[in-house]
Amino acid sequence: MNEFLERLKRFLKGLEIGMREVSTSLIEKELEEYENVFALITMGIFSGIPSPPTGIILRLIPHMQREMYVMLKRSADLDDVFAETLSHFDIG
Amino acid sequence: MSALIVLIGAIIYLVSYFTYGKALEKNVVKVDTKRETPAVRLRDNVDYMPANKFVLFGHHFASIAGAGPIAGPAIAMVWGWLPSLLWVWLGNLFIGSVHDYLSLMASVRYDGKSIQWVAGKIMGERTKTVFELYVLFAMILIIAAFMATFTALASKSPEILTGTVLFIVIAVIEGLILYRTKIPFNLATIIGVVMMVLVIFISFKWPFINIPNIHTLYILQFIYIVFAAALPVWILLQPRDFLNSFLLYAGLALGLVGAIISFRGFTWPAFTTFSARAVGGQPSPFWPTVPLVIACGALSGFHSIVGSGTTSKQLDKEINGLFVGYGAMFTEGFLATIVITSIGAFGLEVLGAAAAKVTELGVDMAQLTAGGAYLGNNYVKAANAVGGTLAVFTKSYGMMLNKAIAIPATFGATFAGLWVSAFVMTTLDTTNRLGRYAWTELWEPVKNSSAGLYAFLSNRWVASIVVAAIGLWLVWGNTYTVLWAGFAGTNQLLASIAMLTAATWVKNVQKAGKWAMAVVIPAIFLWITVFIALVWYLFKVVPTLAAATKVPMYIFTIVMLILDIILVAQFFVSYRKGPELEASK
Amino acid sequence: MQTFFFLGKGGVGKTTLSAAFASGISNEGKRTLVVSLDPAHNLGDVFAEEIPWKIKHLSKTLDAIEVDVDRMILEYLNELSSKLKHTYRYLSVMNLEKYFDVLKNSPGIEEYATLEGIKKFVFEECYDTVIFDTPPTGITVRVLAMPKISLIWTANLVSMRRKILSRRKMIENVRGKFEAEIEGEVLELTSEERNDPIMQELLIYKKETKALSELFSSDKTFVNIVTMAEDLAYFETKRIHESLTKFKIHLRKIYLNKFFRIENPPPEIAGKIKEQERVTEMMKDHFKDIEIREVPMLRESPRGIPQLLDLYEKFIQ
User: Residues in chain C whose beta carbon is closer than 8 A to a beta carbon of chain B?
Assistant: First the structure.
């Protein structure tokens, strides 16, 4: 009996985690996109993209470790953006 | 009978899962417990991270289940409950779930890349473009099809219309509560659920929004789509999406309970006639046109996008792929089974309750209830009396719950209606956003020749309005069955790409030998069926469309047929080529 | 405190006039600093003194300094490089040197360093007057415009950052604190402006830049052009004036340097003198609110403070 309750508790907990994720998955995707754009703009200078005056960039770069990491990762995945974006939306 | 069908359905799915499914797992996918999935190997906690299999199942299932498995079977009842059920069972089992499972696993083997990417690699770059074009067409057709289906329903049911509007309001409130306040999640969820129940209750008791004019509803939906798709996701789309999943689980659970407890015999005939008038009032031969009616529930190309887009990047172990990919599709098939069951048991009663209106439309009630060819030829027409075939479902569902757990039938019908409309509204919102993106991509080449024009066309509002407007144009003057078939057609074409890609993968990369036939045969069967169905659609349905929309629909259909031929040509070339591309280790 | 910028092409006498002005003003009792931003570094030659990249006292009220912009750039990048090597140690895949080469030559790095050079002195409390001998006009105009341009970018970046932080907050509300894992190390991602180093940096930068921008447009800043009464010079001056006006920077005086005041001009330069007259008329006509001063061609280039003082009293005061 105890084991059943234990399992039920774990199931409900899993359900809760799942629901929390469901409730924010789109916002997370949107956040990712904004972060990408931010990273691209501020570090675009390394790819020849028009960017803010060098001054701003030099001031920001020491704080943008994660952004740089994300950007490098993203550029590796650029060949598969379309379907990946599509998959986040509910089109039953 | 209702209980029996549901039970048989459950048994068929369960048995197939453990026999056929497991066999696919072993011989086709060749699951290796030692091989790490990309979620583990490429973990970055951004896109790649392993998720608990139940959580992932819930995610995946909620993403693939929409209004599709409900609206499709509701129309398909026109052939009788048996053919529809057989397609939902066998079509799902041999084609649909195989499609879902293999798209997922192929993607897993290719570092979680989407099925579009994999198709490009395995079947040639042209396939990627075909894919994108299908998606663009699909987006526009979905908007038209869903707008039409919903409007047919809402124009005859102020309860559902009221509920839909109120639902938008509570979704916004729920969004504020969840994301802008410090109210704990569990409490916020309960508030959301309570608000939903209140909405259903209020719409049922005081349906104060009543707009029977379908053109007015079209315009209102158009405005809604354009504005909703312009809002940041947290305001409406995200909380909506969240609340929808509760409706889905409740609907499924109550439907199951209702079907079993109401213990009702089927009054609907098992078989009406082979070429019942399903699409656009034309005699539609069951084969090949059934995939143009029942898409999700039996087979849906969009599932491959979801599965290979996000799910594959979160699968923690290969061995769980069957549960998530295959299992979720079975569950959706099960949902479709419940839809068929409820109409099978209560559909005629629903039509009978509206006998006066049905007769007004020129349909003879006595002949209708007698079943047979008359029902097959006049079901869709008769259904317009209550709000289209979807309304036949919502009211049947209401009656079923009423019989089983004594909730007022209108309450149950309102709940079911809200369940469907919630998904419809969400889909309209998302497809407009995606259509907007695809539209901007389409005009990319213009950027160099005319920067000003490109800037105008790719403006967020312009793109949004254009996409929604095209959808509106298509829907104006056309019946929902015609548009639904168009949407289902593109959906099945997307599935074809996935199936053909999977077939090539299984034969050339997986080297599954004899077992490859488990994928190749359904893939070829699917392609042939859909191709002939589209040709039928081109010659039998498109000419009957409203004059203003004939030309674009001709163009759509012909382009899709041409792309389909290119697709199968690519398939044969790469199939023959042999094992050229190894999946990443 | 008043700030003076002397703009002008190379060879037009900008450094000489800056030095003369500095000598004159400091002689009137104002505590003056003259800064050379010009890579040509002629200030020392004009004062006939060795002027290093540290402040040199030329008289009781006059200090001078030559800013080595290239050196500044290298210094700054080296500092950045060591700072980054420390914080970005996780990004072992990155070839940092490669990125710094890009930065060293990036468009705008010179302007940035020059602006940093200006910033250093322009808020100094201990001087009454700061005079800048500027680099060639192209760079200087861009430098003067940079604060306004930067403000626009900064505003956009701030708004974008706010969107990011607000979405993080929404997700935090439901899922708890954000954590990111980069190569084994766990970072907490904040949703509060006051904890976000990027936001803080942006806001500080915005404040500094706004102050500069306002200063450049204020009545405490005097931008003067040193040029000659020639056709091409006239067109160039016109363009500079337009650019500066676009950025709300006022042109105060135009010095027509090396002005021919010859009693009996030989025929070889008759044409030049006619051009001079014509151009002077055009300038007076076009630049109605701006004082135009003619500084005659001197027999000898002034060297040393006494001669510069003389120049100042005769023609510049």
Answer: 167, 169-171, 173-174, 179-181
* Chain centroid to CA C51: 19
pTM value surpassing 0.90: no
pLDDT tens-digit profile of B525-583?
999 999 999 999 999 888 888 787 888 888 888 988 998 898 888 888 888 776 555 44
**Do you know the residue count of chain A?**
92
Q: CB–CB of B401/B82 below 8 Å? A: no
Contacts of C163 in chain A (CB under 8 A): 34
| Residue whose entry in the numeric block shows the structure tokens 């509300």 | C173
Q: What is the DSSP string of B433-472?
A: HHHHHHHHHHTTTHHHH-HHHHHHHTSHHHHHHHHHHHHH
Measure the N-to-C terminal CA separation of chain B; round to a whole number of Å: 50
| Shortest CA distance from A66: residue in chain C | C182
Q: Say what the pLDDT of residue B585 is.
A: 38
DSSP state of B509: I
Return d(Cα C185, Cα C207) in angstroms, integer: 33
What is the C-alpha to C-alpha distance for residues B488 and B477, in angstroms, rounded to an integer?
A: 19
Of residues A37, A56, A61, nearest to C150 (C-beta) = A56
Q: Which of B474, B513, B501 is nearest to B568 (CA)?
A: B501
Partner-chain residue, chosen from B43, B45, B178, that has the shortest CB–CB distance to C174: B178
Q: Which chain A positions have a beta carbon within 8 Å of C160's beta carbon?
A: 34, 37-38, 41
d(C-alpha B518, C-alpha B182), whole Å: 52
Tell me whether residues C181 and B179 touch, CB distance under 8 A: no
Length of chain C: 317
Compute the average pLDDT of residues A77-91: 70
Question: Which long-range contacts does B361-370 make (Cβ < 8 Å, 24+ apart)?
Answer: B361/B385, B369/B267
Q: What is the mean pLDDT of residues B404-426?
A: 90
